[in-house]
Amino acid sequence: MPLFRSEEMTLCQLFLQSEAAYACVAELGELGLAQFRDLNPDVSAFQRKFVNEVRRCDEMERKLRYLEKEIKRDDIPILDTGENPEAPQPREMIDLEAAFEKLENELREVNQNSEALKKNFLELSELKHILRKTQTFFDERESLMETESMTRALIPEDVTSRQVVAPHNLGFVAGVILRERLPAFERMLWRACRGNVFLRQAEIDAALEDPVTGDQVYKSVFIIFFQGDQLKTRVKKICEGFRATLYPCPETPAERREMAIGVMTRIEDLNTVLGQTQDHRHRVLVAAAKNIKNWFVKVRKIKSIYHTLNLFNLDVTQKCLIAECWIPVTDMETIQMSLRRGTERSGSSVPPILNRMMTREVPPTYNRTNKFTAGFQNLVDAYGVATYREVNPASFTIVSFPFLFSMMFGDAGHGLLMTLFALWMVIKEKPLAAKKIQSEIWVICFAGRYIMLLMGVFSIYAGFIYNDVFSKGVNIFGSGYKVNLTDEELKHHHSAMLVPDEANGHYRQTPYPFGVDPIWMMAENKIPYLNAYKMKISIIFGVVHMGFGVILGIWNHRYFGRSMNILVEFIPQIIFLVFLFGYLCILMFIKWTKYYAGAEDQTLTPGCAPSILITFIGMVLFKYDTVPLDGCDNYMYPGQVTLQKVMIIVAVLVVPILLFGKPILFKIEMNKSKNHAALHNQNGTAEGEDVEVAGVPQTDGHEGGDEPHEFSDVMIHQAIHTIEYVLGSVSHTASYLRLWALSLAHSQLSEVLWLMVLRKGLMFQDWYGGVLLYFIFAAWAALTVSILVLMEGLSAFLHTLRLHWVEFQSKFYAGAGYLFVPFSFENIMEVQPGEE
């Protein structure tokens, strides 16, 4: 059974000729079945043999990321054909480097030219707007009086009285500034020049492109009139401080008109050149977009190969590379064939050598999975990777996980919604996987699509068992009950008891074929009945689940050669569990089958059925009722008291066996080892002979060499284990009551949504009832999906996960291993380019 236990692994030593090493490692990367060990742990990454090749790959990746950024900036689609090109030969690295260098240089040159052209275009566009706006300023006809008044405002009165200043004596500067800086610019001019300047401004309607960032910016044209070199210097400094751009503006209209014509001509020429530059850049990027995915794959494969080769060791001749790797035993032949293919591709005549090595090191854990079982294996590994070759609970989790989930999420309608969503992901898994959606929630849901599918299917099954479909019962086969009351009896009674007695005719004596009878959905005592039913089956399935976990421990004990642990650990554990909680489950079945309505013997009627809880408490405390109820019997079967006392005594007596059994056996083994070592020393040993130090029993593969070697350590460890198991058996059994509690909460929430939301919409009789029902149904559907399916589903999922991790796996699963991480191109390619 592939999932029952992890693959058998072996440590191998690999000898490769230097010329063939690259091709052989490339073949192993395609295969993905070898985990290499670092044979140079004390050598820094900068001192390894192939560090220069890794750096070259890093540089190629940098260039590819630059190309990818430029392609995405232009919104050019990147072609992804799904191809998986082979790892290039080492000599092809030079061609790839030359191609990437040429592309990068060409693209950088085009970008620099384009930026320079855009900057020139921006300057000409701003100058064009300045010439247009300033022409408007100069074309305003002002009277001589206005000119003189403006002159007086700029020149002191004593000067004005001595000479008449003409308008052409005023100097001016023109430029553009960002629109948001204009108010502060105007205030600074007024304050710095003390009101001795005249500012006119006009907004540029069209947005201008920033040549550096590519953003659209809005600017305004301004012209400042002043008189004197001192003010001119001050104005220019303020313009420089606000990063305003100044442009030359002729004083005469003819010169301005001539300059405007020249500017328009240059702008047209620049537009032509810019268009050609952008077309060339676009062609380069489109050509690169067709191959960039394959280029990324090739470079990453080359880099991973050289990174792996850096883990190898060189022999003294510098002609052979030595590697150590963990590989599955069943794939030895496949790996040898791939090594032979690599040797043939490299043209080497020396075949590679693959030798198995003997080691006491614990191998990694490798569980083969497919797209269906991978999700369940991830749930188990999240708790802890299985110790090498111990029983893997993933195969049993495939059934138990969705089943326990469905017991808490038991609604056929909600299960159908979950099933449809999961089925859509399963059917569309290839196109959905190709989209590579990076949302964390989506990645988790998509990875667990088969888990969700099984959870939904099992929930539909549990929903029909509970007869619960969107909180409503369905009557498929016809109820086993019938109302056999007259109209007069119904008038005088608010409610009536339907007793399943053949004499009164309320029961057809044929049970409902599948699940709960739909009559219970209308009964006033529906909740007490379903509570008792769900509580009991929760305990039953919990005890079965934990007992199965204890039984699985036998396979671990037998495989790792710990046969005595079956006597001192497994048998006491199973006796303690069965004699207490297994017996509790048997009492439930006895009560279900022995007591029934309409029994001829009064002691077998439901009123005489003893309470299971009271019976179990009395069994543990050795307290029994001696006075029975009238016409009833205190006990379910003859000899019940004697049997219960024997079971309690036996359950208590196995606890010391569980506590002291393993330490005593350990002590006996230690004494035998010491005696053997003493006898061996008396007989003498040959000079130079290796003597194995006795006194420490050989550890098995399960413990990985971590078994405590001191008796006190073993005793403390076993005491903790015993206390944990004994107390855990009680607490874990009670923990399975969450199956009943969450099922009750889910059904009640579903019923509240029906009564408080959808039922209100169905009560309207007029024409507007249909309109209101449309919106009310939308609200009910939204609340159902968000609360009952998503939130309640997540809650049930987490509780199911806890039941498996704590209550089930703790009975047999150590989870102290480490994962097998092979050198695989497939795993390396899963990382998105540029995410390193």
TrEMBL record:
Q: Which GO terms describe its biological process?
A: vacuolar acidification
Where does the protein end up?
A: Membrane
> Mind telling me which GO cellular component terms the entry cites?
plasma membrane; vacuolar proton-transporting V-type ATPase, V0 domain
Spans through the membrane: 403-427, 439-464, 537-555, 567-590, 646-665, 771-791
> 4Fe-4S as a keyword?
no
Sorted keywords for this record are: Coiled coil, Hydrogen ion transport, Ion transport, Membrane, Transmembrane, Transmembrane helix, Transport
Q: What Pfam families does the record tag this protein with?
A: V_ATPase_I (PF01496)
State the annotated membrane topology for this chain. Answer: Multi-pass membrane protein
Coiled coil (UniProt feature): 50-127
What are the recorded GO MF terms, alphabetically?
Answer: ATPase binding; proton-transporting ATPase activity, rotational mechanism
Q: What's the stated role of this polypeptide?
A: Essential component of the vacuolar proton pump (V-ATPase), a multimeric enzyme that catalyzes the translocation of protons across the membranes. Required for assembly and activity of the V-ATPase.
Give the record's family classification. Answer: Belongs to the V-ATPase 116 kDa subunit family.
- What is the name of the protein in this document? V-type proton ATPase subunit a
What organism is the protein native to? Answer: Daphnia magna
